Amino acid sequence: MSPAPRASVHAPLARRPGVTRALLACCAIAWSALAWGGGAHAQPLVEGGMGYLEGRIVEIVQRTGQDAVALVRLPDGRTVDAVIPPDDPFGEITLPPYRVGERVELYVAPGPDGRPMVVVTDWVRRPALAWLVALFAVVSFAVAGFKGLRAFASTAASLAIVIAFVVPQILGGANPVLISLLGVGGILVLAIYFVHGVNWSTSAALAGTLLAVVATMVLALIFTDLARLTGLGNEDAILLMSAAPQVALKGLLLAGLLIGALGALTDITIVQASVVRELAHTDPQLSLRELYTKGMNVGRDHVGSLVNTLVLAYTGASLSLLLLLNVGEFGVMRAFNLELVANEVVHTLVGSIGLVLAVPITTLLAAVLFRGDRIPVAPGELSHAHHHH
């Protein structure tokens, strides 16, 4: 078992700089077992003799003719000597050096004489991520008050649904499309009812979003088949096929497409339902056609901005791919024929079509439901509407 890579780079495993450091360290680390000066520990470093630990670097020693060694203090107070792997002299990437005071991840494995060998494999990044999450919560509350906090909680719960339900079920061999649809249902309830409240406006938005999701999934099924997409368009999928052959990769592709477009869908359907509700409440004499037409006047403006947002989001996520295609001197026609590129095109366009369809679907549902202002407005029901001028 080898140490984990320090960086996730889309390159063959042997060329990843973190793995290269760890592999080179395996050659240089043998001396640490012989030079281990602390004697036998009262308890093993890791259960089973190999695994990962975390600690903080308190000192770094550069020994002549040997790799640098970090003195790392573990959470239980013990200190260990850990080899810092050298950079690959033939590699194209030089990673930043480890420094005193940094929290690092260690890999422990038994040495030839049975004593543990320890190597530094990566930085501990979770504290920085925790600060970012806290900043997100503070900014959400400062700008949107308790509704911002509810949105933050809804986002966290949605991620929990994906991680705790969707991912394990798919890894267990379940149909990714069906599982993602179930997961999407839970996410929608959180994203709409929990954040905006339970009322007729949010119910219309929820119904419109679900219908748009179904339309998006149908389009995705049709065009992934027409484009002969296999789900093997990137290295991650190929690695997953080896590690978890029970996963249906084509279904996984569809599930990712659906979840990726969900955020923009909920935003636009909430706006449309609220706009139609406001119009019907302000002027109960408006006919169904008039309500629909006026609601669509707002919806068209919203579609223009959100489709642009969705396309730019996918483009930004694929920027490294665009650079790689230019470096490889692919022609335009050849580039679009690659499954890796075709995946992104299908993701972007199918998601955008679903977004566009969500506007007339939700507007029509809300117009039918709210025409004549027959349903009493609940307290606070219209307070979450976006204002358009």
Commentary on this structure:
This protein has a five-stranded antiparallel sheet with strand order 3-2-1-4-5. The termini are far apart. The chain is elongated, with a radius of gyration of 27 Å. Strand 1 and strand 2 form a beta hairpin. The chain has helices at 17-28, 30-35, 126-171, 176-196, 200-226, 235-243, 249-282, 288-317, 319-327, 332-337, 339-370, and strands at 51-61, 69-73, 79-83, 103-110, 116-123. The protein has eleven helices and five strands. The chain has 389 residues and is an alpha+beta fold. The protein folds into two domains: 13-36 and 43-123, Beta Barrel (OB fold (Dihydrolipoamide Acetyltransferase, E2P)); 129-373, Multidrug efflux transporter AcrB transmembrane fold (Up-down Bundle). 60% of the residues lie in helices and 10% in strands.
